[in-house]
Amino acid sequence: MDSSLATDKKLLKIKKTKKDKPILSNIVLYIFLIVLAILSFLPFYIMMINATRTSNEIATQLNFLPGKALMSNYRRMMSAVNMWQGFKNSLIISTSSTILAAYFGTLTAYGFSKYKFKGNKILFWVVLGSMMFPAQLGLIGFFKVASVFNLIDSRWALIIPAIANANIVFFVKLYIDAAVPNEVIESARIDGCSEFMIFNKIVIPMIIPSIATMSIFTFITSWNNYLIPLVVLYDDSKYTVPILTAMAKGVYRTDFGAVYVAIALSMVPIMIVFAFCSKYIIGGLTAGAVKQ
Known about the structure:
Elements: H1 2-50, H2 55-60, H3 70-80, H4 83-114, H5 120-130, H6 139-148, H7 156-159, H8 166-179, H9 182-190, H10 195-206, H11 208-224, H12 227-232, H13 241-247, H14 256-285
Helix pairs in contact: 1-14, 3-14, 4-8, 4-11, 4-13, 5-8, 8-11, 9-10, 11-14, 13-14
Organism: Anaerovirgula multivorans
Pfam families: BPD_transp_1
Family: Belongs to the binding-protein-dependent transport system permease family.
């Protein structure tokens, strides 16, 4: 009897220690994630706090509490640049670029995925190879082409080139390979659907998560684009938000308060996009992770 009680107590201790280990590991993991979330949010918090402080306070100390200089900083920023006109220009360029890049990039990806023609793999590798070269490398050639087509100082110089987006082609092509069976396309052809009807009515609804994911990244990339609009656009009324943010600092001295207000305003659309569309990013990135 005594030996059986002793073994039962040992088994209970082993079970308790096994239960305690996952709890402790979860607590450590949650603490680490909370600290990581705070560190990730801290730069945005400091940016918003500095938008309410004077230039002298920003330059001399680290601020964690809001100040009273928000409206004066805003007025100085608006006297230096027309930020709301920049918002209009950036929204027009970013939205148009995103829509065109999403549709034509998806159409190209569908062609690479479901049409087996001669040179398919070679062309796809060429598209992948283009992802290795930064846009700045072809800036001079891009400027010459834009000048030949009379696109200098025009928003179209920033919208039309966005159609050729290798990132969308690559990501959506892999998603189509995993999510769109060939049998669905063959059944639609037997039912008399045209190729464009199959693409628009059947394929696109099936791959919405991947399109939404890449559209979000395309919008943010276009919104934050600074160098190419700076080279192509000459008229102040066509400047985008990143250019106006850089101009808000002033010429002879840096107005930190006005700059932080401009930066905080420029971050608002990006935060809204992430807040409402983060589920599409997660859904798109995890697609195909679990095999049926």
